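Can't paste images in this forum, so I'm doing it all in text. The chain is below; anyone willing to post the predicted structure tokens underneath?
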Amino acid sequence: MLLSEILGRNDVPAIEISGISNDSREVSPGDLFIAYRGAEFDGHSFIQEAVNAGAVAICAEQDQPSDFRIPWIKEYDIAQRQAEFAARFYGFPSRGLNVIGVTGTNGKTSVAFGIANLLESTVFMGTLGWGPPSTLEETPLTTIGSVALQQSLSQVLERNFDRVAMEVSSHALAQGRVNHVEFDGAVFTNLTRDHLDYHKSMRNYADAKMKLFEQSELNYGIVNHDDDFGRVIIEKFQQRNIKCLTYGASSSADLSWSGVRHTSRGLCGRWLSPWGHEDFFLPYYGSMYVSNAAAILLTSLCNGQKFADVVTRMRTLPPVPGRMEFIKKHGELTVVIDYAHTPDALRHALVAARAHAQGRVFCVFGCGGDRDAGKRPEMGRIAEILADEIYLTSDNPRNESPDSIVDDIMQGIAEPDSVLVELDRHTAIQLAIEAATSKDVVLIAGKGQESSQEIQGQKILGDDRSVVENILEGAHCVTVAD
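Text version of the structure:
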């Protein structure tokens, strides 16, 4: 494709471009390199690396140096506009797909993953990676960068898939990463505190989420009626005369539920809806998964599925990696691994753990470094109220001191002397498991399926599930008689 076609300008050299990249490490000969100042790095600093790798043109926000050898096109607001350039280069791939966006503080992964498993010919994109749900490729972000996203959507088309179930983060919406992705449907799960280190206020956070529901191409929305911000979204849809299906515990929602109970295999209850009343079984643990399942069910209806058929098929949905993942061996305690890293998610995870505990609930968790520090005391307070034993440890401390993060969490704990602090995550998990009995539940929260820990710029390989399984293999757990 010609450079002029990518940039939408006639005043640039007629150069054939074979690829487009905003990462100098991924540049191939013949590429256009896009340089702009980001939150952490300035792409202008890597232009020479891109040229050395074979870039044939530069699109940048700074003026061209006088001695520069290849075409340099100056543009403005490239961080937002690069999605436009990439979409042009890849032929606006989302127009050939049914793209379903899922946003909210908690539940994005579970909902998008469930949709991808229920609907035929659907690719998942999100925290777990991207691809068919059974063969995911790992990605670094919940919603990947705009250039990589357009490339991935193009690959989805090439592989002859029809749909994409995509997690859409507030960062991605604020930064324009999903600009020029034409969404057919949008799903809202909930809005609670998170990412205020970036958004600075809940108002800004909500405004970022709202961008998904303001997309001009939307044909339908699926919205949590129980959430205050969800009701604002519903009103917006009504004003625009766009189809909106709602779900919630309230009977005023299109899809509600009753009689929910926990079993050793999952959740049971009854769906109540205009399409019929049906008993359900969900192979998930935690009452919040009823809400997530309702969003999945309604999305399936908007994609041509029949209500009773979907209810039946949801009985065998695969587990979501790292989301209320139960590990239990005969005669031993129960360990639960969950991604909960917000106050609301931790509260739900602990309530779910309590429902399955005959004895005590242990909570092993920390908080991420270089992220919203204001939620740390709140998470400490929630853990103290809902857990019997607290083990504070490192999450992804990144460039922060783990001690300082723990100090912040401790601010919300009324009796800090009752808390065990062990910054080595592996050791903290082992201590909790060794202290628990067969009637107890140990919740390990914060990292879910993550395969590494970020410490001072390095990624240390290791995941909570493997740690737990190795400990249980050699553990001598105390068994309490019935």
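The chain has 16 helices and 22 strands. The domain at 3-77 is CATH 3.40.1390.10 (Udp-n-acetylmuramoylalanyl-d-glutamate--2,6- Diaminopimelate Ligase; Chain: A, domain 1).
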